[in-house]
Amino acid sequence: MKTSLGTSLVLHTLVLTWALFSLSAPAALNVADVEALPVDIVPVESITQIQQGDKKAPLAEKAAPTPTKRPDIVEHAENAGDNDVDLKNPPTPVKKPVQTETAAAPEKAEKPLPKPTPETNKVKDVVPEETAPKPQEVAALPQPKPEPTPPTPEPTPKPDAKPAEQQAEEIPLPDSVPVPAARPRPELPKPAEAKPEEKPEPKKTETAKAAEKTPDKKVADKKQETAKSASSKQSDFNADEIASLLNKQDAAGGGAKRSAQPAALGGKKTTSGSSLSQSEMDALKGQIQNNWSVIAGIEGAQGMVITVTMKLDESGAIIGRPQVSTTGGSESARRMLEGSALRAVMRSSPFKNLPADKYDSWSEVVVNFDPSELL
Amino acid sequence: MEHADLAAAAGSVSLLSLFMQAGLIVKLVMLGLMGASVWTWAIVIDKYMSFTKAKRQFDQFEQVFWSGQSLEELYRTLAERQNTGLAAIFVAAMREWKKSFERGARSPIGLQMRIDRAMDVTIAREGEVFEARLGSLATIGSAGPFIGLFGTVVGIMTSFQAIAGSKSTNLAVVAPGIAEALLATAIGLVAAIPAVMAYNKFMGDAGKLSARMEGFADEFSAILSRQIDEKLQPRQAAQ
Lengths: 375, 239
Prior knowledge:
Helix content of chain B: over 70%
Number of strands of chain A: 3
Number of helices of chain B: 8
Largest interface: A-B, 14 and 16 residues
Number of helices of chain A: 14
Oligomer: heterodimer
Structural class of chain B: mainly alpha
Distance between the termini of chain B: 94 Å
Number of domains of chain B: 1
Radius of gyration of chain A: 48 Å
Order of helices and strands of chain B: HHHHHHHH
Largest sheet of chain B: none
Distance between the termini of chain A: 83 Å
Largest sheet of chain A: 3 strands, antiparallel
Structural class of chain A: mainly alpha
Shape of chain B: rod-shaped
Radius of gyration of chain B: 30 Å
Number of strands of chain B: 0
């Protein structure tokens, strides 16, 4: 026995020492670092009941669209904006003013002025010799033009020229204007107008009044300016430009509801979705239940649901006769409970504590009762 | 246990540190179970050796017994030694036979009965030797897990008290105390499982050896009874 006890002890010590070294330090578990997933509970009202606001603005207590600039209030407007009329389309961004008008006018004015000196000389050399007799007859427009300017399309200048002539006649310009005559280019209609009128003039001026050129120019300039303004008014008629002139307000679209609050996150428009909250509904139910004289010991009320549909006016009083319908349960129990439910509803008639601002949602109320809760 | 101790020991879960952290009761339980385990294995080794030795002796004796050798001669050689098992039974029976026969027994039935009694006593004595200490194996096997569980419960109680004191539910604080407490159950199971298995095996072996001794005793009794009849009849006839 001693030997076996000794053997056992030796074996145990061996096993223990082995265990001390091999089992002493179990490898630590490698736990992967998993970040907790944040879970938000989003009420469905955020989708079904949206208040009008700005889509890019930060979230605030109450949704609000970008503040409007106009203070005047338009009645019954639903869409936010600076417009006079309540439109559903969003306000268009302010466009840059169209500068076509201002750009067009100076071109006409500047071109004739710098060019006359070099060109007039050339023209003068040619024109007096050949066309001396022609001008005298009448202002024969077509003939002189083709000679100095070969590439220009002839038809365009002609129609333009005529009205120009008429204008010129109205305002006594053509007689005394010497300078624009130099123009050989018929690209623009206006220079073309000038040419025929001037051509007769240079003959006079060259022959008789060479010294008078400078004073004439000044006068001519003044007269040209007036001519330009007159001509531009008529020939540059553009509906868009006029519209842009007339449109002195920023807003081009959008609604007419004014908003003074700072912009906050919200939807494009307000979707009506206000409904009675659970506690408000419970309060309504409680008022009915308080007036419900319970009939004890009804059999067959298991699984029955009583649905009361009633219309209320703004004071909470019932309009007309509420509709009571029941499902489930036995026939006799249904009939009894329908009657008692109707009586309870009528007795509790002006309902109290209904939120006035939510009248839309409780103007017609559907209340469901489980009679097993009442019995 | 102080909070600081707990926090400091929180990191180490080695076997020795687990033992050293444990409270006094848990330590005692663990030490007791370790002793039980040592004792169990000591018994196992002892029994294994003694049973194999007994079987070998049985085989040798049976071989000699049935070899046709004179029983008187066999008795003479064996009587001088310390005998166990079949040899002890044989010697006891022969001794009784000799005593009664040499003194001139009258009744063969009485002689037969005495020889049987002598052999039964020897069988009982030998069987006792075989089954000695197997009871402690049974005790360790059945009680070991419970003792370990007791240690675990006490250890978990104390460690929960310490956790309540430390006011932290961090797993690193909770774990070592529980691991240390569970060590007690582990040691209990380590001691109990081999004990139960060894107990079942050695009880079976002891039963087999006892049956073999019973069988030998019956056979030898039959032989002696025949001898008695043969030897007493001429004597009675002579009278």
